[in-house]
Amino acid sequence: MRYFDPVDKIWYGPKETPLFHPDASAGKVLEFVMKQHYCKVGLICDPTGEEWTYEKLHKTAVNIAQNISTKGLSQDDVIGICASNSLYSTSVALAALITGIPISSIDPSFDKEGIQHIYGITKPKIVFCDGSVLNKLSEGLREIGLQTEIFVVDSNEESGTIDEFLKESDECFRSAHLKYGGDHTAIFVTSSGSTGLITFFKAILHGAKRVITNKPFSAEYLLHLIEKYQVTILVTPPTSLVLLGHSPKLQSTDLKSLTQYLLAGSVIPFDILKKVKEYMPNVTMIAGYGCSELGSCCTSGEITAPNANGHVRENYELKIIDEQSNNLGVWETGEIVVKRPTPWLGYFGNDAATDHIWSDGQLLTGDLGYFDEKGTLYIVGRKKYIMKYQGFQYSPNEIEQVILELSDVVEVCVCGIPDFISIDLPAAAVVKKNGSSLSENEISEYVHRKMPVYKQLHGGVYFMDEIPKTVNGKSLRKVVKEKLINLHAARTFRSD
């Protein structure tokens, strides 16, 4: 059972014995589970209409794993994946797990410099990619001196392809034992791969049918997929929830199949959540709090109030600390610190960054939050995003939540504009509905009525066509802040 130690001021999740041996590789576990579901459809690729059973997925992954082993790679090497969702990119990821070779996964939307930054650190021996990024990838790797073999997961005659990895072998093949036992991390992920791999694992472990697509996201397309495949479990960032809430197709789409909707990655707008839930009569809305460094969510639970992120999950320990690292109690806000049930080896090739957030077996998340008396965790914001206006602290998330109450607001990102006197002037970048007559002044007035003076938009409101985001839907606050600083400077210059 979950409990709170009032002396040490630590929240504990329920103790649970792992289903599999802790030293078992992820590949070995997934192979075992797939064999229990051989006849079931495991993957559906919507753009092509192809369906693969778990037997087809497993045998394809084993073929790829066998051929990877002929390349002379060991568990000290790295396999790169720079490909969008497809049947074969999924098979490559599974094959890497079976061989016990780490994966360095990046989104194909990365520019050449982004690819060079990541692969300059991880130095993959082979990379599987989409044909559309082959030239960008090969040029980028060549410029940083990496002699990396590249194989295309879709058709391309100018390079090696996935086909040579699909050849069947007469040799019996077994998933590899981890070279370093339970202390070795078989996978590390960059970009948006953490959430994708978690859902990938979960789907296989539950023998579920997973729908994949490489088409660009839109709320209308997501609604189409839910209705077409009678989806029961949905996992998205809160930004997708906001877009669903503003979609004209929300009311006309049959969403009765949904039973669980998991949201994780940023602040969840509660009013929009309630609106969307009205059209999902059988769904339970679940918040999950975690990060890539944890490899999963450390808290989860039904969303019953704004900023609520559920209770501590099995085998995790959480505490809240102040600026002096003192443990805090119920209803006291501070930095969230997490102790994982398994070791974390840190950032690949960056011990300094690891030491900055990892202390005595605990992760310093940089997130601010508090627990109530029932053990529910509430997220307030990011420690580094907390700003000051004339000596008073404010969190951008609080202001964003208020602005999102306006029905014509689709997206918002609040940043602080540097000011010699006031320190950080709250300013809002806003995306409004197409055809909306909502004005900047109306937004400012609404915030003025709802928030204290130090949380009002002294830096102004600025409409944008879109909010710059990461590939997994999180606002790029640094980029947005630079845009707002320039817009504020131009507006100030004109007024002078």
Number of helices: 13
- Measured as a percent range, the helix fraction is 25-40%
CATH class of the domain at 26-205: Alpha Beta
The stretches of 5 or more residues where confidence is low (pLDDT under 50) are 169-173, 177-193
Mean pLDDT: 87
CA radius of gyration: 24 Å
Shape: globular
Helix-and-strand structural type = alpha/beta
* Measured distance between first and last alpha carbons: 63 Å
- The CATH topology of the domain at 26-205 is given as Rossmann fold
Largest β-sheet summary: 7 strands, antiparallel
- How many beta strands in the DSSP annotation? 25
The amount of beta strand, in percent, is 15-25%
* CATH homologous superfamily annotation of the domain at 26-205: ANL, N-terminal domain
Gross CATH architecture of the domain at 26-205: 3-Layer(aba) Sandwich
Report on the structure:
It comes from Megaselia scalaris. Residues 398-474 form the AMP-binding enzyme C-terminal domain. The structure is a single chain. Helix content is 29%, strand content 24%. The protein is α/β, with parallel strands linked by helices and 496 residues long. Strands 1, 2, 16, 17, 18, 19 and 20 form a seven-stranded antiparallel beta sheet that branches. A five-stranded parallel beta sheet has the order 6-5-7-8-9, sandwiched between helices. The chain has helices spanning 26-36, 54-69, 87-99, 112-122, 134-143, 193-205, 219-229, 238-245, 270-277, 351-357, 396-403, 440-450, 477-495, and strands at residues 3-5, 10-12, 41-45, 50-53, 79-82, 103-105, 126-129, 149-152, 160-161, 210-212, 233-236, 260-263, 284-291, 296-302, 311-312, 317-321, 334-339, 358-359, 362-371, 377-382, 387-389, 392-394, 409-419, 423-432, 460-463. The radius of gyration is 24 Å and the shape is globular. The chain contains 13 helices and 25 strands. Among the domains are: 26-205, Rossmann fold, CATH 3.40.50.12780; 386-493, ANL, C-terminal domain (GMP Synthetase, Chain A, domain 3).
